[in-house]
Amino acid sequence: MNILxxxxxxxxxxxxxxxxxxxxxxxIVVQETYPASGSNNLPPFLQPIHDASHTRDRNKSPPNxxxxxxxxxxxxxxxxxxxxxxxxxxxKHIYWLHGYVGSGKxxxxxEVAKVxxxxxxxxGSFFFCRSGGDRCGMTRxxxxxxxxxxxxxxxxxxxxxxxxxxxxxFTAMSVTEQLHRLVLEPFQAATSRKFQSTxxxxxxxxxxxxxxxxxxxxxxxEAFIDTIIDFFAQNPHVPLRFFITSRVEHHIQSHLLAxxxxxxxxxxxxxxxxxxxxxxxAFATASQGNPVIQAYIRQNGSWxxxxxxxxxxxxxxxxxxxxxxxxxxxxxxxxxxxxxxxxLALAFNMNPGLDGLYTQTLARxxxxxxxxxxISTIAxxxxxxxxxxxxxxxxxxxxEVVHVLVDLQAIFQVPRADNLPVTLCHTSxxxxxxxxx
Length: 437
Prior knowledge:
Layout: E1 10-20, E2 23-32, H1 73-84, E3 94-98, H2 105-118, E4 122-127, H3 141-152, H4 157-165, H5 175-190, H6 198-202, E5 205-210, H7 218-234, E6 240-246, H8 250-256, E7 261-265, H9 271-289, H10 291-300, H11 306-316, H12 320-331, H13 340-347, H14 355-362, H15 371-380, H16 387-394, H17 398-405, E8 412-413, E9 423-424, H18 427-436
Helix pairs in contact: 1-2, 3-5, 4-5, 5-7, 7-8, 9-10, 9-11, 9-12, 12-13, 15-16, 15-18, 16-17
């Protein structure tokens, strides 16, 4: 007897046979044969970006940042706990972590991607970079995520292949269309009742999107946010989540301020303690391999002193990029003939190298009414004032102050409440504003 004589694209997944009192019975479990998974087996014109994920060579493809051992544990644990929790417990599909330049967003995104990948729940990751070629735009964003997803979730591969084979010129399609056809719909199909397995729906998968503000295509960024918010509103039980990091910029904030999005300000996660941990560990390691520091400690006691480290933490002001630069300046041998102890004293005169960012960001609002008045006032304040307080000083209305500041949130923290103080991303910004004023 021929079984499944004319069947195609089928394999015998399992044969269960038993013999009861001379009667032979068998049960055949038939499985559909999926096309081989993996981006290499997808049609070549999908053209993913191969250095966009968390596994890229960060020395060649920035940002080259990672969490220093022992730091950022709390925030990473909170995000990964949300990412892998049941949709029954935490119904929100999107998490937006925002913060200043140099505050460690990309390092956290990298760590989150690593942790979730180890749990086999990472669907894909994309790290935008303004100077990273195609990684500064959305043209190949969906194709890159689809390529990664076909490997991470083999069940989605045939649906991605079908989408690619049934269409051409994906790069000419809108971001919304690309996301639906290459990422969202294939994932939804793979996890639908017809194809789902316990492993697929046990806990959600996560897609990590870092540095969304680095994407130059503002309209495409808005379309991406709107697309995933609308998709999850219509499909609340799809086991997929997005973790997004960026600076606060108006075109991003205005679309992510939704009830369906977890909003998290990195400034609220106590970077001061993490920077203290970094400095203590880094200086301890440096002293072990530096005979000059060792000789100084034998004669004078611990170095840097507790007071020196506290002063450094205060001076660094929450910027991990600046913390790393200051540390390297102090301990790295150079031709200036100075000892690390002498360079420590000079470090407090360092500029964090953010002037270019300040100039670029301020230029966005320089044409607006009251720009100079608002910025000059902030520069001269001894203590932070709220938007309404600044307005009272200038004799203008609060909305006119907010109008100036709304596109400057990469360097100012502008609370949504008008009676809370407007603060600076770093103490060096006030020096810059005074000089420019």
